[in-house]
Amino acid sequence: MRTRQILCPTDFSETASHALKYAIEMANLYHVGLRLVHVIDQPVGLENYQILTVTPEELAKSMEDNAAEQMHALLAELNSELSVESVIRHGVASEQILKEAESSEAGMIVIASHGRTGLSHFLATNVAEAVANRAKCPVLVVK
């Protein structure tokens, strides 16, 4: 863990930004690089049953362009001496984060928890919980 980079998934939320601060602190402590990953998921909901005015390819390209812009803005804000890499993946968030952790041989994953409880916990997919339960490396879940 102490020689391999830290993987930090982000959805560009305030909670993910908070987890990123921990990831940076851990990377500085161990003098390792930081790898940011964002996963573009297939949108799910009632709006998908409406008639699309764009093709699925155009929608995917638009989502990827938007994610790339947000990732560039995030990287510009870091002002860090760390070696920072960024990756954008497509698919189910927990699966893609785990695949990225394995392929990059991450020493640790630092991930935000959105802190859902009760009914909302059961209705919403809990990415942090899925990653923590299935990861082969240590996982720090930040609230």
UniProtKB/TrEMBL annotation:
Species = Shewanella piezotolerans (strain WP3 / JCM 13877)
Q: Which residues form the UspA domain?
A: 4-143
Protein name as annotated:
UspA (Universal stress protein)
Cited Gene3D superfamilies: HUPs (3.40.50.620)
Q: Name one Pfam family in it.
A: Usp
Family label = Belongs to the universal stress protein A family.
